[in-house]
Design brief:
Helix content is 48%, strand content 20%. With 276 residues, the protein is an alpha/beta fold.
């Protein structure tokens, strides 16, 4: 092979390798996006979708796993971000779950047939939704929580279910923003049942961030009665953003492990406190 042919041959090899590498990188980006939008996908399905053999997909998955972007599972993979989010959400839900269930059932008893109910986000309000499904009554619910809406949807115990519009808050399955707030400006409710990131007897109830606080604040201001549901770990402390002052809270439902001084202080300020 003469020198000119050797140079041409090597140039073609370099171009092929470069093109193959770029295609592999693009395929891995698309693969990651696909996994982030799905709970899990099988290797065989991924190979068919991208028009390559399963060995190629396995190499791609190994590369993505080494980078920490995905978690390999039997026969396929799932996005690590999704695994982390679902694990964290489930861990929060299970924390003090027995108490949250009792709180949810006590809150559901306060709802009467035909009433409009606001439910915001949180693992305790999720238990309220489950209790409403299990025990009735036949009410109407407006919620900013995708989890609460999913729990309530399709059950004959509800007269009506309204999922408020808006954008999904990063790291949490609930809706916030101007769209959500605009809908809440147009709606009223007989009772707002709201979660809390902290209840300070002197200052009021707090949310974890300003976005969720704005939603809870609007629910509270447009409801005839405000009920805060929170397990004992939330009493006697403040959170990041206050959404309601103590004097505007009608009822707090918590468990019997709640700080007795905080409970007494709330009652002294005219708040009904139910211990379950």
């Amino acid at each position: 092979m003469n020198a000119s042919l050797t140079v041409l041959f090597e140039s073609n090899i370099i171009k092929h390798v470069t093109r193959s590498g770029a295609q592999a990188e693009q395929r891995r980006r698309e693969l990651l996006e696909l996994l982030q939008g799905n709970r899990s996908l099988a290797t065989q399905d991924l190979a068919s979708r991208f028009g390559v053999n399963e060995m190629t997909i396995r190499r791609d998955l190994r590369t993505l796993q080494d980078s920490g972007a995905i978690v390999r599972c039997y026969g396929g993979a799932v996005a690590a971000q999704r695994i982390t989010f679902e694990f964290a959400l489930d861990e929060r839900r299970r924390r003090n779950l027995v108490q949250k269930k009792c709180i949810g059932e006590a809150a559901a008893v306060l709802v009467h047939s035909g009433q409009w109910v606001f439910l915001d986000t949180g693992t305790t309000t999720l238990e309220v939704a489950k209790a409403l499904v299990a025990h009735g009554p036949c009410c109407r619910v407006a919620t900013s929580s995708l989890l609460v809406a999913s729990e309530l949807w399709g059950h004959g115990t509800l007269e009506e279910l309204v999922l408020l519009g808006g954008r999904v808050r990063p790291g949490s399955p609930d809706l916030v923003g101007p769209g959500t707030e605009l809908m809440l400006e147009k709606l009223t409710a007989d009772v707002a049942i709201l979660g809390s990131d902290g209840i300070d007897p002197q200052r009021g109830s707090f949310a974890a961030d300003i976005d969720s606080a704005r939603i809870a604040e609007r629910m509270a201001s447009n409801a005839a009665k405000v009920v805060i549901v929170a397990d004992h770990t939330k009493l006697g402390k403040a959170g990041t953003a206050r959404y309601i002052a103590t004097q505007d809270i009608d009822h707090v439902i918590t468990d019997r492990q709640a700080n007795s001084k905080a409970v007494a202080a709330l009652r002294q300020r005219g708040v009904t406190v139910t211990l379950v």
